[in-house]
Specification:
mainly alpha, about 60% helix, about 0% strand
Length: about 80
């Protein structure tokens, strides 16, 4: 799983955990629904730090909490 896929999955999981629709997240975060849908669908390959920060605010969590999920633990077999 690459970073954009992990971000997408994290947003989906947080929406589920917070019982929040994309519309509600859009209103709380200030990010357009289309942008959130692009992040979730993978069309947005590199969401910016500001967007992630706004998403975290929309979820009422810190940006550190957003990134602290185990989904962002990447392992590589090559060095």
């Amino acid at each position: 799983m690459n970073l954009s896929q992990a971000i997408s999955k994290r947003v989906i999981l947080l929406c589920y955990e917070k019982n929040m629709t994309v519309y509600e997240l859009s209103k709380k975060s200030g990010i357009p629904r289309t942008t959130i849908k692009d992040i979730i669908s993978g069309r947005s390959k590199n969401p910016g730090v500001l967007s992630i920060e706004k998403l975290a605010i929309g979820f009422s969590i810190s940006i550190g909490e957003f990134w602290s999920d185990k989904i962002f633990t990447f392992h590589s077999d090559t060095y």
